[in-house]
Amino acid sequence: MPAGLVSVTNLRGTPREGWRRITVAEAMVPWSRVVRVEANADLLTALLVMAEAGVTQVPVMSPGGAEAPPVGILSRDDVTQYLRVRRELGV
């Protein structure tokens, strides 16, 4: 089975009543079309990538190109919380 990623964003076009009939494989975006960032990208770049793609989270990839393995997931909320904590601590 091909790899991919599914999120609430993918389900927006599907009425809630249809969620029981749609499989994860049908709802997911194929990995080749998943928007992602490399681990060495700065936070502003990651936020811009998410905004441009209209997504709220992206897989974080090891540096090394499209075939590099994912090392995590970054969400817009994670970045916002990180920046808020830094501001509160005066860092």
From TrEMBL:
Keywords associated with the record: CBS domain
Pfam families: CBS (PF00571)
CBS domain: residues covered: 28-89
Keyword Phosphoprotein: no
PROSITE patterns: CBS
Keyword hit for Signal: no
SUPFAM superfamilies: CBS-domain pair
Protein name from the UniProt record: CBS domain-containing protein
Lineage: Bacteria, Pseudomonadati, Thermomicrobiota, Thermomicrobia, Thermomicrobiales
